[in-house]
Structure formats: structure tokens, C-alpha cells
Amino acid sequence: MDIFFEQIIKKKKTALDLAAVFATYLGGLAVGAVIMFSVIKYMPNFFLLGIMLAVLVFYGAIKLAAFFNVEYEYSVTNGSFDIHKIINKSSRKHLISTTVDSFESFSKYDEKKLSGKTFDQKIFAVGDENGDLFCATLRHPKMGRVLVVFEPDQRILENVINALPYQVKLDYKRG
Q1: How far apart are CA 38 and CA 31, in angstroms?
Q2: Of 80, 61, 94, whose CA–CA distance to 4 is shortest?
Q3: pLDDT over 90 at 47, yes or no
Q4: Is the Cβ–Cβ distance between 28 and 53 less than 8 Å?
Q5: What whole-number distance in Å separates Cα of residue 1 and Cα of residue 78?
Q6: Which neighbouring-strand residues pair with 86?
Q7: Least crowded by CB within 10 Å, which of 18, 53, 98, 168?
Q8: Closest listed residue to residue 103, CA positions, set 80, 75, 129, 127
Q9: 147's torsion region: left (phi>0), alpha (psi -120 to 50) or beta?
Q10: Whether the predicted pLDDT of 1 surpasses 70
Q11: 69 has pLDDT over 90
Q12: Is 12 helix (H, G, I), strand (E, B) or coil?
């Protein structure tokens, strides 16, 4: 019997993200207005072209601001572990695929414990950095030494723990 669980975590927007979205909208509106008024002043015969260009610029700003709508999808299938990044519910980027038995360590995320270690790649797939975070370290054939930080629900967590190698599972339960 196949075991399959998936979870989607929506990334919470920080104040910096909200400021960037606001600046994108404001910039699109300002550039669109400059284009429209320039066309009206210097080429009044092309008034409709100016309006169309202004609308296109603002539409581009709306599309650009949509890149701040980020979700992460975790899936565990028979011991394989995948993370995808979903942008604006329309495009999907594959972050990592591995097996849980390739984890060298698994624990609650503590930045202080990991501060002295170096990684070729760090993957932070979390919704809220103040949530209940877990981390795994592993050697990936293409990515090298990887740190994966994620925010699993109870089902994903239980399946990951069940698929861990024996020694890693013991270390997790002790720590």
C-alpha cells in the first residue's frame, strides 16, 4: 500500500514584502501616468495609444507584484520527500527531491546549533519563521551538502520520522 501525504504552506508576507508590493503598484502607476501624459502632451493624435501603454504598464506592475504570493508544497510518498515552490498559484518550481533515508540528521530547527556548519545549499520552505520548524541535513548528488528547513504538519512529520534511518531516528528522539 502506497503512503502519500502532501501539505501546502502559504508564506506569510513580511513588512518588507508588503512595502515591495506597494512600491511596485506605485511605480507602475507613476510610470503609466508619465507615459500617458507625455503622449497627450507631445503626440495628442495618439491619445488612445498613451492610454493603452499606461494600462499595460500598470498591468505589468500587477503581474510583478503577484510574485510575492508564495506557497510551499511538501509531499512524502513511500519515503521519498519533495518540496516545490508555488508562485501565485500558477507556476511551480522544484526545490528538492530526495529520500528520507538519505537524511544525515533531523531535528527541530535551531539556528544556533547549525551556525558553525557549512552547506552548499540552504532551502528554507517555511510559511512563518516563528512557527514549529524542523530541519534535515543531507548529501544530495547534484546539490551537495544541503540544509532543508520546513514546517510539516503532524501527518508529514510522522511519515518522515517513520522513514528515517535507525541512527538518525534515535538521535531525533534523544534530542
Answers
A1: 10
A2: 80
A3: no
A4: no
A5: 9
A6: 71, 92
A7: 18
A8: 80
A9: beta
A10: no
A11: yes
A12: coil
Q: Which three cell numbers stand for residue 119?
A: 552547506
Confirm if 24 and 3 have CB atoms less than 8 A apart: no
Q: What pLDDT digit, counting tens, does each position of 75-121 carry?
A: 999 889 999 999 998 899 999 999 999 999 999 998 888 888 899 99
Q: Which residues of 156-172 are buried (b: 16+ CB within 10 A; e: fewer)?
A: bbebbbebbeeebbeeb
In the block, cell 551537495 appears at: 144
Amino acid at 45: N
Whether the pLDDT of residue 168 is over 80: the answer is: yes
- Contact present, 10 and 73 (Cβ < 8 Å): no
- Find out whether 21 and 53 touch, Cβ atoms under 8 Å: no
Amino acid making up residue 128: D
Distances (CA, A) of 150 to 30, 64, 127, 138: 39, 26, 8, 14
What residues are paired with 137 via a beta bridge? Answer: 105, 147
Residues forming a β-bridge with 15: none
**What's the pLDDT at 49?**
86
What's the length of the chain? 175
Contact, 169 vs 144, CB < 8 A?
no
pLDDT digits (tens, 9 = 90+) for 146-162: 999 999 999 999 999 98
What is the rounded CA–CA span in Å between residue 40 and residue 117?
A: 60
